[in-house]
Amino acid sequence: xSFYGWLWRVLPGPVPVKALLAVILVLAVVAVLFTWVFxxxxxxxxxNDTTVGE
Amino acid sequence: MRAVRxxxxxxxxxxxxxxxxxxxxxxxxxxxxxxxxxxxxxxVVASMEANPDKDIVSPDDAVPGDAFAVVRIPRFGADFAxxxxxxxxxxxxxxGIGHYSGTAMPGEVGNVAMAGHRTTYGKPFNQxxxxxxxxxxxxxxxxxxxxxxxxxxxxxxxxQVSVVLPVPDQPDAKPTEKLLTMTSCHPEFSARQRYVVHAxxxxxxxxxxxIPASVLExxx
Lengths: 54, 220
What we know:
The complex is a heterodimer of chains A (54) and B (220). Chain A is an all-alpha fold and 54 residues long. Chain A has two helices and no strands. Chain A has helices at residues 3-10, 15-41. In chain A, 11% of the residues are buried. The interface between A and B is medium-sized, with 21 and 42 residues.
């Protein structure tokens, strides 16, 4: 059982095409993380508080 | 046996992936938020400087999210300039320096209270601990330049709201001076305490008159 092994098998085409598709998939995941996931998590990080308040 | 080995392999992949995501998060927080916020702040400041009458909101009309001044602090660098926004919510502080709503406006009697990030999101107050007594904090509004000079600093608990009172730390005192207070987190990368710098209005100039070059020099 291996997710990445399975992913590599289902990617179509010869090895260079598979590699290119894999890179595109990784970049897409990074873009989703940078755009939506991380900004949603960041307010809970302790080092982002700068104001005084109750 | 084979099934167990397969599951362990899958668990390993999950853990490696989570580790990579955590590293990505660190990179995003410490580097990418600076890239995005610096570019946004530079664009806003440039438009404010180019068209003060159009792109700088008058302090009297500022509602949360409005940029109503440019803050320059020569000690942080000759080109240090950040927009000052009304309000101190999380999303406002991602874009620049925030003005505590309800505190005095630049040039008024009372205490102009501002907050800024020490780390991440363009970190406008990253160098706050380097400020020395006498250092200039220049606040440029639509009509006037206000030159505040640092009078001192303190480290307080995050709950000590008295530092942004009209007369800092004196709840019942009637304000007579024109003060300014900056807050940021302390120590760096922590929210355990707040680093607070107080300043007092030293001079004010109209936009037409401009600022004397000596004001922008850093001493010592």
